[in-house]
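FMN reductase: structure tokens wanted.
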Amino acid sequence: MFATEPVRVVAVSAGLSSPSSTRLLAERLAGAARERLLAEQDRPVEVRVIELRDLAVDIANHLVTGFPSAALDTAIKEVAEADGLIVVSPVFTASYSGLFKSFFDLVDNTALTGKPVVIAATGGTARHSLVLEHAMRPLFAYLRATVVPTSVYAASEDWGSSGDEYTDGLPSRIRRAGGELAAMITGGRAASGAPRTLGLDDEVVPFEQQLADLRLD
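Answer:
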């Protein structure tokens, strides 16, 4: 009997404090993805959280010398070999942190091609939430990763909030993003209805018919 290879989910946290809300968000997203993966298939799931705070000096030395330490080399390889990736940065000056960017500058620019990725960020106020769309999503698009539809931003007031009639609470957004990551890892369609490539057997509905279906009786 052959051993079943585990699904590897790697979460990268660029939080600087300890304890860190950035690390907490990374862990909760990883937990949501793991829960969905275990529910949908019988392979074991391994979750690894990489704390960039612990690698800060190694990252700086690598940028200067071109040689990674053993710990940094292991972290880079784990990111490249992951089946699914979760990346979380605190917001600094309306963007991701320098530590976060420096780490991904060291990852080969083809290593993340096609890899499912959840992007997430933490900050003191909700007004910085667009960092996900104007900074993080373009970065991972450049790296040719496949970013899941749901990105997760956690402001200070989001922790413990159940949301309102207009906005889902943080736990709901975490579950949705984790589910989308799990679906992409297993080859399914993202839970939020992300577009997929049409196959030869898929029926193409004419645009005029789509419009007709939308008309009220």
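Strands lie at 7-13, 45-51, 84-92, 95-96, 116-123, 146-147, 152-155. Helices lie at 21-40, 56-65, 70-81, 98-105, 131-142, 170-185, 207-214.

Cheers.
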